[in-house]
């Protein structure tokens, strides 16, 4: 874990930062490094780092554990990070025990069932598919037990034989006389490769490996409300096991494309809509696109640019629990670009009365209109 950066450093906040400060920092960095926006080579790596830091620091329980233990997970005990390696060799000292004490930790059965490896699959989905969920079919290349030889590796009608060198143990002992005395070093048998078995007549399908590569089609259900970076675990859909061992698991990593009009933060949706000077000054009722429909929003007279309005329950369905988030609408006052002579005279009169002068036009307002049009069309 030494190569992991401090989560507070990743988000650029102090250890006393509030939940809102952490959320704000995450939102800014997530936008900056999102792979759909940032095309730099390390953008995706930085985005994952930011997401991981936010997932921990935004949860009070995980944050408290992190503040106390850092990147070491105390729940993993002696087999987890920072403790013993959990592989039976006591964190890399097994070879030393083998050299001086002839194996001390006990022998492993080379013919015992072995669990298959886990697999990871990256799936990119549309913004609204993440919001509402979807079912799809994917094709996974994976290693499975050979049907011809039932995983034995031997030609049908024959079977593997016990290795004559290691007598089925899968290990050889090499004795060395040193100034410290007689030492025994145990290593994998060179004759059978540590399997304890020798295949004289190999299966014609898998050529003695006992496993073959296959393309497997799997139906995947993406739950409504899933967010970018989420993982879906499909038990038993990973690599096939050895010698009757269980298959590994398949982890599907979700990547969500950015939307032109909507932005998402947890279960809430954010968007920006333009208002004319007249609408903002006198008030109006406008139509707003949401994820599912168009709704009316009342704009009170005297609304200032940058004001947010909340549409309750118009956000993302909660992945764990009931209900939905909200939609937050930010209004931006648009300066007109084409005015008639009469309109200009009226504005000059207005400016003379109020002591104001006309503002310069901002180009990005035009793009807001275009994005809003697409949102109304359901794009």
UniProtKB/TrEMBL annotation:
Q: Name one Pfam family in it.
A: DnaJ_CXXCXGXG
- The residues forming the signal peptide are none
Chief site of localization: cytoplasm
UniProt-listed InterPro entries: DnaJ, DnaJ_C, DnaJ_domain, DnaJ_domain_CS, HSP40/DnaJ_pept-bd, HSP_DnaJ_Cys-rich_dom, HSP_DnaJ_Cys-rich_dom_sf, J_dom_sf
Cofactor(s) the record lists: Zn(2+)
Task: Give the co-factor note.
Answer: Binds 2 Zn(2+) ions per monomer.
Which residues does Zn(2+) 2 bind? 163, 166, 189, 192
- Where the record annotates domain CR-type, the positions are 133-215
Sequence positions that bind Zn(2+) 1: 146, 149, 203, 206
Q: Enumerate the spans annotated as J domain.
A: 6-70
The residue spans of each CXXCXGXG motif repeat are: 146-153, 163-170, 189-196, 203-210
Q: What does this protein do?
A: Participates actively in the response to hyperosmotic and heat shock by preventing the aggregation of stress-denatured proteins and by disaggregating proteins, also in an autonomous, DnaK-independent fashion. Unfolded proteins bind initially to DnaJ; upon interaction with the DnaJ-bound protein, DnaK hydrolyzes its bound ATP, resulting in the formation of a stable complex. GrpE releases ADP from DnaK; ATP binding to DnaK triggers the release of the substrate protein, thus completing the reaction cycle.
Q: What is known of its domains?
A: The J domain is necessary and sufficient to stimulate DnaK ATPase activity. Zinc center 1 plays an important role in the autonomous, DnaK-independent chaperone activity of DnaJ. Zinc center 2 is essential for interaction with DnaK and for DnaJ activity.
Can you state the subunit structure given in the record?
Homodimer.
What is the designated name of this protein?
Chaperone protein DnaJ
The organism is Paenibacillus glycanilyticus
Taxonomically, what lineage is the organism?
A: Bacteria, Bacillati, Bacillota, Bacilli, Bacillales
Q: Give the gene that encodes this protein.
A: dnaJ
């Amino acid at each position: 874990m030494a190569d992991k950066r401090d989560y507070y450093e990743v988000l650029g906040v102090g250890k006393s930062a509030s939940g809102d400060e952490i959320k704000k920092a995450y939102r800014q960095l997530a936008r900056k490094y999102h792979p759909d926006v940032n095309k730099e080579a390390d953008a995706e790596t930085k985005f994952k780092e930011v997401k991981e830091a936010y997932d921990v620091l935004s949860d009070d329980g995980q944050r408290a554990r992190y503040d106390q233990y850092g990147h070491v997970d105390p729940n993993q005990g002696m087999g987890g990070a920072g403790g013993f390696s959990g592989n039976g060799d006591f964190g890399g000292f097994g070879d030393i025990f083998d050299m001086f004490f002839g194996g001390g930790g006990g022998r492993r059965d080379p013919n015992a069932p072995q669990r298959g490896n886990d697999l990871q699959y990256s799936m990119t989905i549309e913004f609204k598919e993440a919001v509402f969920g979807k079912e799809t079919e994917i094709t996974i290349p994976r290693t499975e037990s050979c049907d011809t030889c039932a995983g034995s590796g031997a030609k049908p009608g024959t079977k593997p034989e016990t290795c004559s060198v290691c007598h089925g143990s899968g290990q050889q002992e090499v004795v060395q006389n040193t100034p410290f005395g007689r030492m025994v070093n145990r290593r994998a048998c060179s004759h059978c490769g540590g399997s304890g078995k020798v295949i004289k007549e190999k299966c014609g399908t898998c050529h003695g490996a006992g496993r073959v590569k296959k393309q497997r089609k799997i139906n995947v259900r993406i739950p409504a409300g899933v967010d970018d970076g989420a993982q879906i675990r499909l038990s038993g859909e990973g690599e096939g096991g050895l010698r009757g061992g269980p298959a590994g698991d398949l982890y599907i990593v979700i990547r969500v494309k950015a939307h032109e009009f909507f932005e998402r933060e947890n279960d809430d949706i954010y968007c920006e809509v333009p208002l004319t000077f007249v609408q903002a000054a006198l008030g109006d009722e406008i139509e707003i696109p949401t994820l599912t429909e168009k709704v009316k929003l009342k704009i009170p007279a005297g609304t200032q640019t940058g004001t947010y309005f909340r549409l309750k329950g118009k956000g993302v369905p909660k992945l764990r629990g009931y209900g939905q988030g909200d939609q937050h609408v930010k209004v931006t006052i648009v300066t007109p670009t084409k005015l008639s002579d009469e309109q200009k005279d009226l504005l000059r009169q207005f400016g003379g009365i109020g002591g104001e002068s006309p503002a310069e036009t901002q180009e990005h307002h035009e793009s807001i209109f275009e994005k809003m049009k697409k949102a109304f069309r359901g794009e």
